[in-house]
Amino acid sequence: MKPPTAAPNTTPLEALGIVTLCFGWFIVGSLWSVGAGFRNGAITDASLFSLIGFELFVGPIALLILRSRGYAMRGGVLPSPSWRGCVVGALLYVVCVLASVAALAPFASDTAQPITRMMETARPSLAMVLALSVINGLYEEVFLLGYLQKGFQPWGASFALGLSVLVRVMYHLYQGPYGALSIAVTGVIFGAFYLRTGWLWPVVFAHMLADTLPFL
Q1: Residue 2, domain member (yes or no)
Q2: Confidence class of residue 121 from pLDDT cuts 50, 70 and 90?
């Protein structure tokens, strides 16, 4: 696969608008959680349904905006699913898990983390988890990598990667410091893979697995 080429009309102002539209609400909620001492709500079918509804509403709006500005959709911002990509995505997920375990190993004795408490009390149905994993995996990686990171590659690979990781971590701060560290490690691996290959579907599939398997 060839490295992705950036859309020529990507601008900081446009990127700020898309990031605010797609992730602004999540970033605000995540920062509120930090300020409130990580008083997160329970993971239930209702909370997952709300998240799915938000992404199904906002995602198409953001895509329409990008299309109106000249961005290619399929093969551009959007991924092209394939069985081979699923296999590569599964391997990518394993790499992320191993890297996260290694990064968190020094803190293994500290289990009182917000994300740990959230998972212990989570009671969503499998059907809702699967629905969320598909929609959320697409939503996040399309706008973080397929749009944001890809669009800022002319500014330098390190800058583009760092920007996508920064946004990813900001709306996951509600998970606590160790959860955010794990997200940062995953974001670097996802972003580096996409920088190297320009292949978005394996990242999307790896994200789907990351959203599903912890609940099984």
Answers
A1: no
A2: confident
Counting the structural domains of the chain, the total is 1
Check pLDDT > 80 for residue 2: no
Is 32 part of any domain?
A: yes
Whether the full predicted model's pTM is greater than 0.85, yes or no, is yes
Nearest in space to 95 (alpha carbons), one of 205, 195, 185: 185
CB 42 within 8 A of CB 121: yes
Token pair, residue 13, equals: 């102002």
Other residues' Cβ atoms within 10 Å of the Cβ of residue 71: 20
- Residue 182 tokens read as 């794990």
Q: How far is CA 181 from CA 43, 178, 205, in A?
A: 21, 5, 21
Sign of CA dihedral 6, 11, 17, 20: positive
Q: Does residue 118 sit within a domain? A: yes
Residue type, 69: R
The pLDDT value recorded for residue 5 is 45
Query: Within a domain: residue 66?
Result: yes
**Amino acid identity, residue 189?**
I
Residue 27's pLDDT is 97
